[in-house]
Amino acid sequence: MSYLLLLLTLISVPMEAASPDLKCNASGEFKILMISDLHYRAEPDTRGIELTRRLIAVEKPDLVLVAGDCVTGNKNFTVAEVENAVANVASAMEQMKTPWAVTFGNHDAEHSPKTHLGKEQMMRLYESYPHNVNAGWERAIHGVGNKNALIWNAAGTRPVFSLWLIDSGDGAVTPEDRWDWIHTDQVLWYYETSRQVESKYGAKIPGLMFFHIPLPEFTRMVNSKKIIGERREAEGSSTTNGGLFSAVLERGDVKGIFCGHDHVNNYVGLYRGVALGYDGVVGYAAYPRMPDDDPSLNRSRGGRVFLIKESDPWHFKTWMRFGDGTANWESQSNRSLEEQLK
């Protein structure tokens, strides 16, 4: 028996949380808009909120995923300010009645020493909004908001895709680590939940994984493989590797892992058969900061779109939609991501 399987015998992992409202449309498609690094405060970031509304209006996603640093914790000093910042995060999706979920980043809970609001209390704030779908997350492991959600076919009779939302932790936890990492109990939760899903439905369900802080494998990929998009800063990964990527390789069901954190990266690549990528930045209080008349201002911001088809869920399509309204060429290509990255 492998070490991983031995550890699995020591824990009990519940079945995936059902999200019956997440299903393909009548055409058999499901679209996700991923945004991150809003860095919102109590005072509304009107440009960031308006950008999110434009992205939703253009892409018409079935789900918006906010992949961490939703608020800038150290700029919110009271409970009321945190509540207002969370309301700003929710604003665009709630106004446009679009289902949405968040994962936490390293800045989200920096206010906790002053406000005494932890991530669980913050998650309850997010869950209180009518169109939020974070409820049902796993509470027995590191982090807050770890969740597996299934996307069903248009008829609602069988799952065709799987979403993995993971809390990648906070800032420095040791003198050697600038960033936290995804811990062993989270990796085991993914591994065992994936096995249970396969057992329940008689086959592996392909999926995507979303969290904030990138894995060390991102840097390995860019040092050896072709990427599409911009890489303008080094990956802010933890120096500790928690082994999530190895578990993903062993299970073979996660087809892509996507993060925020590094604001000026929006690339995607393929590493050992798994897509690794970023979505850029949405918030205007966050870097990169540039004059309003700089033509690259809105080109530096945007969101990553994913298109899933129930007829072929193992091959998803992804592209960037920028703040100036344009999309990169992948949005028009009929080639699979694997073919584009050859």
- Overall geometric form: globular
- The number of distinct structural domains comes to 1
Largest sheet: 7 strands, mixed
Would you tell me the overall average pLDDT? Answer: 91
> In percent, how helical is the residue content?
25-40%
Computed over alpha carbons, the radius of gyration is 19 Å
Percent of residues in beta strands:
15-25%
CATH-derived architecture: 4-Layer Sandwich
Helix/strand class:
alpha/beta
Indicate the CATH topology.
Answer: Purple Acid Phosphatase, chain A, domain 2
- Number of DSSP strand runs: 12
Strand order of the largest sheet: 4-5-6-8-10-9-7
Number of helices: 9
User: H/E series, N to C?
Assistant: HEHEHEHHEEHEHEHEEEEEH
Low-confidence stretches: 1-19
Which CATH class? Alpha Beta
Oligomer: single chain
CATH superfamily: Metallo-dependent phosphatases
Q: What is the terminal-to-terminal distance?
A: 37 Å
Features:
single chain; alpha/beta; seven-stranded mixed sheet; 9 helices
